[in-house]
Amino acid sequence: MLLDHKLAVVTGASTGIGFATAQRFVSEGARVVISGRDAQKLHRAAQQLGEDVLPVVADAASPADMQRLYKTAVEHFQRDVDVLVANAGISRQTPVRETSLEQFSDVLNTNVGGVYSTVREALPSLSRPASIVLVASLAANQGTKNFSAYCASKAAVVSLAKSFAAEFVELGIRVNSISPGVANTPIFDSLGMSEAQLLEWAKVIPMKRPADPAEIAAAILFLATDASRYMTGADLAVDGGMSGISPF
Ligand SMILES: NC(=O)c1ccc[n+]([C@@H]2O[C@H](COP(=O)([O-])OP(=O)(O)OC[C@H]3O[C@@H](n4cnc5c(N)ncnc54)[C@H](OP(=O)(O)O)[C@@H]3O)[C@@H](O)[C@H]2O)c1
């Protein structure tokens, strides 16, 4: 199995892409620490994932929470962290004329500050070699009406992966980002979008369907393992052709 005896941390893993990633990692032999802020949701996910999974309630944007998470992970599994997936993130509609700086900053604080704290606080607990995967988005490169905060936050995540990669390459720590297009997860509930609206959006995807979260997890697994050992500072598009194929 690809992750036999490895220890992985996946933030924001109670639902969606994070949950699918934790599930795939377990099936590849890893022990996995999952996090999220809502304890009930997180423990329900951990129960589904089985005994190789340890849930730790933690806000990715809180350095103190993340320090506690890594300490708990290393003590519980008695080894350093081999794979870190900084996946926790939120999406909000933020039309410029109706969005205060405080609301704008809330998205940036979770999606960018959260990734920064997740990686920074992990450093003392990371094994050498280790692989870090940051979950960005297709939105990093596409201006989207009413989503300036989210788009800006994801552009920052792609950029952070490259600078982290530069800073950690001599430590044997690889850092890459992944940019999903549209994946069918509860993030769209938080935007008040129905599944029918999601399927409407999907019509512009060359593959004509949203991704199953497991398809994003498969690409995260690739970046997590030795299969990608010559990659660092890269951004991997997993978007059904949206970024690479012209609609004409
Ligand atoms: N679905 C898509 O189409 C899509 C496309 C591109 C990129 N992405 C990115 O993929 C990642 C996962 O999204 P998803 O679609 O799987 O959404 P999701 O199902 O809503 O999952 C988000 C997860 O993050 C957790 N979370 C949110 N804020 C957190 C925080 N401050 N600290 C810790 N955990 C936090 C949530 O749990 P709690 O609320 O309990 O904390 C939940 O477990 C996000 O970064 C998102 O931007 C998604």
Secondary structure: elements and pairs:
Elements: E1 7-10, H1 16-27, E2 31-36, H2 39-49, E3 53-57, H3 63-77, E4 81-86, H4 101-122, E5 126-135, H5 148-168, E6 173-180, H6 195-202, H7 213-224, E7 235-238
Parallel strand pairs: 1-2, 1-4, 2-3, 4-5, 5-6, 6-7
Helix pairs in contact: 1-7, 3-4, 4-5
The chain binds NADP nicotinamide-adenine-dinucleotide phosphate.
NADP nicotinamide-adenine-dinucleotide phosphate (NAP) is lined by residues 11-18, 35-38, 41, 59-61, 87-91, 110, 114, 135, 137, 180, 182-183, 185-187.
Per DSSP, the total helix count is: 7
CATH level 3 topology: Rossmann fold
Q: Point out poorly predicted stretches.
A: none
Named CATH architecture: 3-Layer(aba) Sandwich
**Overall pLDDT:** 97
Strand content: 15-25%
Major β-sheet annotation: 7 strands, parallel
When the domains are counted, the total is: 1
Tell me the span between the first and last alpha carbons: 42 Å
| Cα radius of gyration in angstroms | 17 Å
Shape category: globular
